[in-house]
Structure prediction request, 256 residues.
Amino acid sequence: MRIGEIAALAGVTPRAVRHYHHLGLLPEPERRPNGYRAYGVRHAVELARIRRLTELGLALAEIRDVLADDEGRELTEVLVELDRDLARQEAEIHSRRERLAGLLEQVRDGGLPPEGPVSPGLAELLRAIAPSDSPTARKDRGHLALVDSLVDDEQRDAFLDALRPLADDPELAARTAELYAALDELADARVDDPRIAPLAAEFSAAVPDTLLRLMGSGPPADGHPFGQALLGDFAPAQAEVVRRLMADLVRRSREL
Prediction:
């Protein structure tokens, strides 16, 4: 048989046959006087075996090891590992489908927030907080989504519980909206603007003790890489408000 004939018989392509020769998976047959390879039934048997192993998901390097082991021990080991790998993939797919189901439920319950996908708890909180046209408020919602993606379930629950007053207390929500509007007005201000210090103090006063306890007494915002990145997300005068706010929150948390 010629290469096209044996490839068709084994269910592969002539290009695959040549590739298997190149990798040493399939010995090259002798050539006829006319220069064409002459394939026999044994070549077809080996090609069919290679095709079955690739369909199982084995890499060609693994197949080469399997074919080199006449007693089948290598094949057994490879198949066991392949089964374990498929089990891991199956578990990951199941986990991803569970997360997807949660997101679809958020869609049914009122739609994904612009910051989505986020955890169901944060999605519920963001829907409860009245949407705002404030650029800095939108930034903070993005910061919440970032924290939501970085913490474990227990930390997330505590974090969301601490933020719940923003959704449950209309007066606090209205006051927070006013503070964000004032922060927006500092977008083009200088870092020595007289509005900075009182605005930082007002922001600090609006943060409930429950959130302070969750924050702990860590370093000020500008003393940590994340804090530095956070400050860099704001205009200079706004960043100065946030820096003073974080420093005051650290002071308050140490006094609790």
